Amino acid sequence: MGSGSSPCASCKLLRRRCAKDCIFAPYFPPDDPHKFAIVHKVFGASNVSKMLQELPVHQRADAVSSLVYEANARMRDPVYGCVGAISYLQNQVSQLQMQLAVAQAEILCIQMQQEPELPTTHHPTMVDCDAKSLLLSGSNTSDFSDQMPQFLSYTSSNNNVIQDPLKRESLWT
Amino acid sequence: MSSTRCAVCKYFRRRCPSDCVFAPCFPPDNPQRFTCVHRIYGASNIGKMLEELPMHLRVDAVDSLYYEAKWRIQEPVYGCVGIISSLHRQIHIAQTQLAKARAETAFLRANVVAAKTMPSSGEFMAQQNSIDNGLDDQSNPWFY
């Protein structure tokens, strides 16, 4: 607010005067009341205010966007929230990696079958290889086991991940 | 009143009733679990969320709230959303690589079929090999 115009969405919902330096005003415009309502329902206005106050101004917009995203995820799935989405996406990554390994093994297989004039005394499995046997002989299949260890390891290995900037266009839809 | 207060009632220094909504989800031996979620969500919001859920799902709900709260404390700007963003990127990269690998497989298979259907493919390969081997030989007419 600040200019005497309509109060921000948070002050409207909380039914209070919207001060010039209202911490919510830049991020919760009055034309989108749902945005603040959902964040308030999950986190509470007071907690959001504390979180924003602890951040430098240039990071608050991204923080609000991520809080809105989390709040929406929690409303859609009250039991698992974002954690459910992470688990699902990790599963997708694992499946794709497995498919990629199979495809790469197939390529290797075809290339080996095209090797010119292998000696007849050569190991028969080199000629009769198939993608699966090549994959299982060379790869570590334990990479595709239980999802939970990968999920839990995020708390210790996520530093590099979190440093990457968030692409708004890919996420805030 | 339960003989041992749950972590929430201990934190607030109050009696823990027998029907305390927090007690099954916040055992007294893990006070950090509650302080973490309380810092991000607030006890009142957690209580409301739990009351809206069936009993058998409440522990799972608190587990996920705890993980999200931990991530938010570690990374105050993006929380666990940063991880979601990273996973989306990984999926995109893996899909691109998979499409590329499948295209290469199709191409190689097509080449195999083409090689098998060509007449005198053995002669052709022999000529090809001699050309390749002779490229460095200045006396070879193919050398230029």
Q: Your description of this structure?
A:
The complex is a heterodimer of chains A (173) and B (144). The longest helix of chain A is centred in the middle third of the chain and has 33 residues, at 81-113. Chain A has helices at 9-14, 33-42, 45-53, 57-76, 81-113, 124-127, 131-138, 147-157, 159-163, 168-171. In chain A, 64% of the residues lie in helices and 0% in strands. The radius of gyration of chain A is 26 Å and the shape is rod-shaped. By secondary structure, chain A is mainly α. Chain B is built from 6 helices and no strands. In chain B, helix 2 packs across helix 4 (55-74). The longest helix of chain B is centred in the C-terminal third of the chain and has 37 residues, at 81-117. Chain B is rod-shaped and about 90 Å long. Chain B starts with 6 loop residues before the first helix and ends in a 10-residue tail after the last helix. The model of chain B is unreliable at 140-144 (pLDDT under 50). At the A-B interface, helix 3, helix 4 and helix 5 of A face helix 3, helix 4 and helix 5 of B.
**What integer is the average pLDDT of chain B?**
86
Radius of gyration of chain A: 26 Å
**Biggest sheet statistics of chain B:** none
Put simply, the count of helices of chain B is 6
Largest interface (CB within 8 Å) is between: A-B, 53 and 53 residues
Q: What is the ordering of alpha helices and beta strands of chain A?
A: HHHHHHHHHH
Beta-strand content estimate of chain B: under 5%
In short:
The complex is a heterodimer of chains A (173) and B (144). Chain A has 173 residues and is mostly helical.
Which helices and strands occur, and which strands form pairs?
The complex is a heterodimer of chains A (173) and B (144).
Chain A: H1 9-14, H2 33-42, H3 45-53, H4 57-76, H5 81-113, H6 124-127, H7 131-138, H8 147-157, H9 159-163, H10 168-171
Helix pairs in contact in A: 2-4, 5-7, 5-8
Chain B: H1 7-12, H2 31-40, H3 43-51, H4 55-74, H5 81-117, H6 121-134
Helix pairs in contact in B: 2-4
